[in-house]
Amino acid sequence: MSIFCVVDDKHVPLYRIMWVSALPHYCGNEDCQREGQYEIRLEHGEAVWASTPEERDAVLAALEAWAEGEPEGGLGFRE
Asked: Distance (Å, rounded) from C-alpha 78 to C-alpha 18?
């Protein structure tokens, strides 16, 4: 089992993830570069952003598998 998942181009340790957004970001600012992306909040106020619902769901699946102690394989977040 890996303790990492890939979000965008970053290998993120699962234990650093605090929460995952259910809805895409929308703030209405014209210059916002995160509209439509899913925030994955890390500890210490940091965040990474998933570009697609599938990428967000892969992070959630990895967290669930990690919490349940499932063996590696079938986690959906590796290529």
From this structure: 21
Residue whose pair of structure tokens reads 């940091």 in the numeric block: 46
Domain spans of the chain, in order of start: 4-68
The rounded distance, in Å, linking the Cα atoms of 12 and 14 is 6
The alpha carbon of 9 is separated from its chain's Cα centroid by a whole number of angstroms, namely 11
> Top-level CATH class of 4-68?
mainly beta
- Conformation bin of residue 51: beta by default, left when phi > 0, alpha when psi is -120 to 50: alpha
pTM: 0.81
pLDDT tens by residue, 9-59: 999 999 999 999 999 999 999 999 999 999 999 999 999 999 999 999 999
For the record, the structure tokens of 25 come out as 């970001």
Could you tell me the two tokens for 68? 């349940």
Q: Which residues pair with 11 in a beta bridge?
A: 6
